[in-house]
Amino acid sequence: MERVVAKDNMFYALHRVESNKGAAGIDGMTIESLRPFLKDHWPEIREQLLNGTYRPKPVRRVEIPKPDGGIRLLGIPTVLDRLIQQALLQVLNDIFEPTFTPFSFGFRPNKRAHSAVKTARDYIKEGYRWVVDMDLEKFFDKVNHDILMSRVARRVQDKRVLLLIRRYLQAGVMVNGCCITTEEGTPQGGPLSPLLANIMLNELDWELWRRGHKFVRYADDCNIYVKSSRAGKRVMASVKRLVEERLKLKVNTQKSAVDRPWRRKFLGFSFTSGKEPKITVAPKTKRRFKDKIRELTSRSKSQPMSKRIEKINTYTIGWVGYYRLADTKTVFQAFDEWLRRRLRMCYLKQWKKPKTKKRKLVALGIPPEWASLISGSRKGYWRLSKTPQLNKALGLAFWREQGLRSLAERYNELRSTT
Predict the structure, then answer these.
(1) pLDDT band at 69 (very low <50, low <70, confident <90, very high)
(2) What is the DSSP-derived secondary structure letter of residue 412?
C-alpha cells in the first residue's frame, strides 16, 4: 500500500485519470474538481488507505446497448475511486504482468487487439482452419469474488490491498437512488476491472498452453484454433468443463461454436478462406457501420450539412483507425460510395420543391435539361441519389470541398505509415 500511495505513483495515476476524462460517479464530482478536492483532503484519504479504513462509494449504473442485442451493464466509480483504482492498477500490473501468457492480449501493456487478430490469422495460415469460438456469458457480472480473491492473494500479501480490492468488488451499485449490494462480478467501467478479469482467466490461459493449443484471448473473447471439426468439438467440451467447474463461470452456448474462422467474428474482424488468409471486416461490423451512418444521415433529423459532415468525420476517422488492419481495401471504397449517396439523398430532401432542385443543380453546373429530369421526377430520394445527374453535380470534388473525409484515402494513409 505504501507503493500505491507513493507521490510519483499517485501523480501518474492522476495524469491518467484526467487524460481519460469520463463521467462523474454517484457523488457528481467531475474530473475538473478532482485536483482541488485532493489538495484539501488527500492527507486524510492517504491515512485511511494506509490503515485499511478507506471505504469506496457504490458505482453508478449505466446501461449500454450491445450491437447484437441485449444490454451491457457498466459501473461508473467516483473520480476519487477511479484515481485510487488507477494507482492500485499501476502497482499490481508490475506484480501480475510477468505471470500472464503471451496469448492474452486484452488490456495489457504493449498488447492490443490488432496483435490478437494477426496471431489468429497466422494460426489459420499454418493449417488450423477450425476455430473453437468460446463466449463467456455475462463474464464481468458473474465473476466469483472468493475465487478471484484467492488468485490475487497468491501474489499479494498486503492485507490492506486485498481488503481494498474486495471492498471495490462489493461496493454495490446505485440504481434509482437505492444501493444494491454486489455478491459477484467485477463492474466494467473502473480501471481495475480489466486486470482482475485477466487474473481470473489466467488459469484458463495456462491450461490451454499446457495442452499445446493454439489460442488467442482478448478479455472474455477466447478463440482456440484446431485442425478439424472433431478436434474442435472435443476441445469445446473439455474447456467448457474447466471454465464451469473450476472457475465457476458459464459458457454462452448460443454464442459459442466450433466453425470455420471465416464464418465467425473476432474483435470486429473476420478472415478470407484462401490458403493465404486475409483479414477482413466482419459482416456484422459492416452492418453496424451502416446503421450508424443511417442514423447520422437520417432525413428526419434536420441539421446543417456542415454539422452532419462534422459528425460523420468524427465517427469514420475513428472507425478507419481501428479497421485499417483489414487487407480488403474495396470495403472502404464501397462505404465511401454508399456514404456519398446517403448525403446526396439528404440534399434532395432539403431542396424539396422541384424549382429549388432545378435551381440548385443548375448552379452546380448541370445543364438545365438534365436538371429538369431530376426536378420533375416522381422517383424517391434514394433512387434519384444514384442518377448520373446527381453523381455529376454532387461528385467527389464537391464533397471534398464540403470537408467530407474519404474512408479509402484515410485507410491508404494509415496503411502506408504502418
Answers:
(1) low
(2) H
Cell numbers for 292: 450508424
CB 244 within 8 A of CB 115: no
Look-up of cell digits 478479469: 197
Position 62 pLDDT exceeds 80? no
Per-residue pLDDT tens for 207-236? Answer: 999 999 999 999 888 999 999 999 999 999
Q: In angstroms, rounded to a whole number, what is the distance separating the alpha carbons of residues 413 and 401? A: 19
pLDDT recorded at residue 61: 77
With beta carbons less than 8 A apart as the criterion, state whether 78 and 24 touch.
yes
Q: How far, CA to CA in Å, does 16 sit from each of 222, 268, 304?
A: 28, 27, 36
pLDDT score of 29: 93
CA-CA-CA-CA torsion sign (306, 312, 316, 319): positive
State which amino acid sits at residue 61: R
Average pLDDT for the chain: 91
Q: What is the pTM of this model?
A: 0.88
DSSP state of 173: E
Contact (CB, 8 A) for 393 and 364: yes
Task: Give the C-alpha separation, 367 to 378, whole Å.
Answer: 20
Residues in the chain: 418
The single-letter DSSP state of residue 128 is -
In 3D space, the residue among 227, 200, 287 whose CA is nearest the CA of residue 235 turns out to be 227
Band (17; pLDDT cuts 50, 70, 90): very high
Measuring CA to CA, which residue among 340, 343, 299, 317 is closest to residue 409? 317
The letter for the amino acid at 32 is: E
Q: Which three cell numbers stand for residue 138?
A: 455475462
Q: What is the DSSP string of 257-299?
A: EEE-GGGS-BTTEEE--SSS--EEE-HHHHHHHHHHHHHHT-T
Dist CA 46 CA 224 (whole Å) = 45
* Distance separating alpha carbons of residues 131 and 221, to the nearest angstrom: 12
In angstroms, rounded to a whole number, what is the distance separating the alpha carbons of residues 144 and 139? 10
Q: Are 201 and 215 in contact (CB under 8 A)?
A: no
Q: How far apart are CA 82 and CA 192, in angstroms?
A: 8
Residues contacting residue 78 through CB under 8 Å, at least 6 positions apart: 24, 25, 26, 27, 29, 56, 57
